[in-house]
TrEMBL record:
Organism: Mobiluncus mulieris
Enzyme Commission identifier(s): 4.3.1.17
Pathway: Carbohydrate biosynthesis; gluconeogenesis
Segments forming domain Serine dehydratase-like alpha subunit: 194-472
Residue runs in coiled coils: none
Pfam families: SDH_alpha, SDH_beta
Domain (Serine dehydratase beta chain): residue spans on this chain: 6-156
Family: Belongs to the iron-sulfur dependent L-serine dehydratase family.
Keywords per UniProt: 4Fe-4S, Gluconeogenesis, Iron, Iron-sulfur, Lyase, Metal-binding
Protein name, as recorded: L-serine dehydratase
NCBIfam families: sda_mono
Length: 478
């Protein structure tokens, strides 16, 4: 039977700058230390090996600091942005790490934090090996794979012995939920056969493990967190993003210019400006996406949807929905719930059948997936039929095929921040194109997702979050 990924696994609160390289390693380390302490084995030293893409860009993505945070007992959804920098500062000279329960363990950063970009595990390019030692002998080990979007798989197979891969994420069995699906075609068929909306079907699946109050409360919390992140990014007075590239933060200056010219949201001034410049909506959507991704690049709290590197798209399009779509003026809360629910389901289908990891399929899996989620969610919230919703998601993904992941310096800054702004507008455009049609389309969503996967697997590893090709090598870091 098909398994369905919960929308609350696809869209989650996290910490920047990367879901696969920051959030995933933190969750893996937290799981490792929990199991280590529960095992009751004696140990006096820990060692971490970041492998593959994690080893190649782990410093820029703060993967090393994220592992330290996880080992210290932190989780991404309630962690202050200063935790990782403070841990890196404290551990580097001291060589000690404080684990949950106040246990202090030897950890020499230069000795015990190993970057191994050429070590490629067979299951996934984002792998990390954590070990506990007693003296020189390893006494407890854990291998984990950060598979994109903050999803983590633990490898329970011992060397030369049978075992299994265990997901740390919430995937529901098809026997538990009323409408099991793994493809968009199946979801659309459910809707057309039953006469229900995609939103209703997805909510009924979520009801298998949550109450309606928990579902609606969870969606409202995600909406609130997204809006708060936009507002923090717009109001941040910081001039330069961390990391050494010297990339300036632009959202605050743009926010001031638009606010001065357009007036406060909802006032007549904003509509007068649109009469003079009908394209002004693009400026606001660009602002919101830039604001979120600047917060992410600075290590702040974001909502990954489906990844941190693409975290600006779904929030920006969501605010477009409530600011610039009169259709939902009298039911904005409900519209945002439908938007996020359908977006999350689209992301779950992509995750199930392809990947949302830049290290596996390039940026088409991150920004392409986020644009697809936003486009389909927007079409749903604006009253689109199931075929129109599928068409919107397909259009957005189709026109991100082949997009590479080649961040300069391994930092989630260039081209990532601007790319989110461009993709947010593409998502809106995809939804509008679909809504003006009748839902009939030549290329299905499932076909374009399969194409994205095959394209990503064929893509040279230089263009999959290794900082070994593209802009990462052709632009001088200074």
């Amino acid at each position: 039977m098909p398994s369905v990924v919960s929308i609350f696994e696809v869209i989650q609160v996290g910490v920047g700058p990367s879901a696969s390289h920051t959030v995933g390693p933190m969750r893996a380390a937290r799981d490792f230390v929990t199991r280590l302490l529960a095992a009751g084995v004696a140990f006096d030293r820990l060692r971490v090996e970041l492998q593959g893409s994690l080893g190649a860009t782990g410093k820029g993505h703060l993967s090393d600091g994220a592992v330290l945070a996880g080992l210290s007992g932190y989780v991404p959804d309630n962690m202050d942005s200063e935790v990782i920098p403070s841990l890196l500062t404290a551990v580097n000279p001291g060589g000690n790490l404080i684990l949950p329960g106040r246990k202090t363990v030897d950890f020499g950063f230069s000795r015990d934090m190993v970057y191994a970009p050429k070590t490629i595990a067979p299951y996934h390019n984002n792998s990390l090996l954590l070990q506990a030692f007693w003296g020189q002998a390893p006494v407890f080990s854990g291998r984990y794979y950060s598979t994109g979007g903050g999803f983590v798989t633990r490898d329970d197979r011992l060397e030369g012995q049978p075992g299994q891969l265990t997901s740390l994420d919430e995937t529901r069995s098809g026997g538990v939920i009323p409408h099991p699906y793994s493809a968009m075609s199946e979801l659309v068929d459910y809707a057309q056969d039953s006469g229900k909306s995609l939103y209703r079907i997805i909510v009924e699946n979520e009801l298998a493990t949550r109450t309606i109050e928990q579902i609606e409360g969870g969606l409202d919390n995600l909406s609130h967190k997204m809006g708060a992140c936009i507002d923090r990014g717009c109001q941040s007075m910081a001039a330069i993003l961390p990391g050494g590239l010297g990339v300036p933060r632009r959202a605050h200056a743009l926010y001031l210019k638009l606010s001065q010219r357009d007036g406060a949201p909802g006032t007549p001034a904003i509509w007068r400006s649109f009469a003079q410049d009908p394209m002004r909506v693009m400026d606001w959507v660009n602002l919101w996406a830039l604001a979120v991704n600047e917060e992410n690049a600075a290590g702040g709290q974001v909502v990954r949807a489906p990844t941190n590197g693409s975290a600006g798209i779904v929030p920006a399009v969501g605010r477009y929905l409530t600011w610039f779509c009169p259709r939902v003026e009298n039911h904005q809360v409900e519209a945002l719930r439908e938007y996020l629910t359908v977006a999350g389901a689209i992301g779950g289908i992509i995750k199930t059948n392809a990947s949302v990891a830049g290290a596996e399929v390039g940026c088409q899996g991150e920004v392409g997936s986020a644009a697809s989620m936003a486009a389909g969610g927007l079409a749903a919230a604006l009253g689109g039929t199931p075929p129109q919703i599928e068409n919107a998601a397909e259009i957005a993904m189709e026109h991100h095929l082949g997009l590479t992941c080649d961040p300069i310096g391994g930092l989630v800054q260039v081209p990532c921040i601007e790319r989110n702004a461009v993709a947010a507008m593409q998502a809106i455009n995809a939804a509008r194109i679909s809504l003006w049609g009748d839902g009939k389309h030549r290329v299905s969503f499932d076909e374009v997702v399969q194409t994205m996967l095959e394209t990503g697997l064929d893509m040279n590893s230089k263009y999959k979050e290794t900082a070994l090709g593209g802009l990462a090598v052709n632009v001088v870091e200074c």
